[in-house]
Amino acid sequence: MAKLVLIRHGQSEWNALNLFNGWVDTKLSDKGVAQAKTAGQLLAKEGIQFDQAYTSVLTRAITTLHLALEETDQMWIPEVKSWRLNERHYGALQGLNKADAAKKWGDDQVHQWRRSYDVLPPLLEEQSETMTIDGKTYPALDRRYQDVPAGEMPKGENLKVTLDRVLPFWDSDISKALKAGKNVVIGAHGNSLRALVKHIEQISDDDIMGVEIANGEPWVYDLDENLNVVSKQILKPEA
Questions:
Q1: What would the DSSP string read from start to end of 195-218?
Q2: Rounded CA separation 215/61 (Å)
Q3: Alpha carbon distances (Å) from 229 to 107, 112, 197, 210, 224
Q4: So which domain of life are we looking at (predicted)?
Q5: 73: pLDDT confidence band, cut at 50, 70 and 90?
């Protein structure tokens, strides 16, 4: 069997401000740093030995992975970063306060944009490498995305589109490492990880809406040779 561990990044600066974050590259808050370290301590207590790490190209996920691995004394393991593990792109909602958005469009509409499986948020009308959102550069055209295939740079995503974006990387890289018997850790985002969970656990379109992955609480799977789930454990800090 191989182990797969999923870690949602710690609280980001924009999480703390209740802003839609998406692909905007924010850092961890102080609370987020503590959550990432706690995730690593929980993994160290379990004694899990990793062979391969994956993360997105966004700072909050990369930092979380590194802080967690540092706590397990495993920062040395091979690591691959991919834009395909980025958070869901929230389109024109990025940078908006969630409460303000609810006042503008209504609670039901914002809830639908956030939680429905296949309803898209308002899309960005344009993308440029100089565009900023609340002082943060939106790096649509910077070099971290130079390998994004033509026409695949998102202007807004729902969970269905996010899953379609994540799955090629699962098939090309992650699943192959697991089938080779490697223990894998992924530091990523709430929605890219929910997309993976939907695929791994074969969760229905309706039921995935009720699945939440908390910041800094590792999900640990034991998978058989066909990547079927043998066991699952969510590691939580002591109250």
A1: HHHHHHHT--TTGGGG----TT--
A2: 11
A3: 36, 30, 11, 19, 7
A4: Bacteria
A5: very high
Catalytic one of 71, 87, 157, 217:
87
Among all chains, which residue has been given the structure tokens 């870690």? 7
Determine whether the annotation assigns residue 228 to a binding site: no
Mean pLDDT of 87-113: 91
Is 189 in the active site?
A: no
Report domain extents, the chain.
1-232
What pLDDT does 130 receive?
A: 47
User: pLDDT digit string (tens) for 21-42?
Assistant: 999 889 999 999 999 999 999 9
Q: Is 204 annotated as a binding residue?
A: no
| CATH 3.40.50.1240, domain 1-232, yes or no | yes
> Catalytic: 9?
yes
Position with higher pLDDT, 222 vs 155: 222
21 is in an annotated binding site: no
How far apart CA 26 and CA 99 sit, in angstroms, is 20
Is 14 annotated among the ligand-binding residues? yes
Q: Tell me which H or E stretch contains 2.
A: strand 2-8
Question: What are the Cα distances from residue 130, in Å, to 83, 140, 236?
Answer: 19, 9, 40
